[in-house]
Write a structure and sequence with these properties.
With 192 residues, the protein is mainly alpha-helical. Helix content is 71%, strand content 0%. It is globular and about 50 Å long.
Amino acid sequence: NIMFNLILEAIKIARPIHWVKNLAIFGALLLTGTLYETGLFKDVLEAFFAFSFATSATYIFNDIIDAAADRLHPVKKNRPIAAGKLPMFIAILELIGFVVLSLAMAAYINQLLFTLILVYLGIQIFYSLGLKNIPVIDILIIASGFIIRVYAGAFVIDAHLSVWFLLCVVSASLFLAAGKRRSEINLLEAIS
């Protein structure tokens, strides 16, 4: 029962529900007309999982860094580390495991994907260490995550994306990032 609860909390901290954001990796495959080309879907699917493991690692890192502050937050206090349901040691092991798995998969798939995931992880480290508290910068970093996802998918299938497509991705990314921040502010206002 204790082992089951630990596994459940380890899954919860990885936030697999948020892997839906990584579906942006399929954008280039769908919009360049290459969906039915042999092997490309498999490559992008593997890239999706490599990126998903990376995003889970960033959530765990953020929860490790923010554990003390999360305990004081009306909603975040229920996160596995903040609530004391997942020991820090296990969270750190899980974090390392996800980073290694993500980078190993990415290196196997494509060197550009490996580089993009490395850049993404680097950006997210600085985001968790304090950039998320700087207005506008936080939105730009969240938006950059969506842009990196789209380009990761394009690099995997060696697709060329037009300037118009890039502008659409940037606009949509900024819109989603601003919406995310606004919903968090509304939630805090409703609770207090």
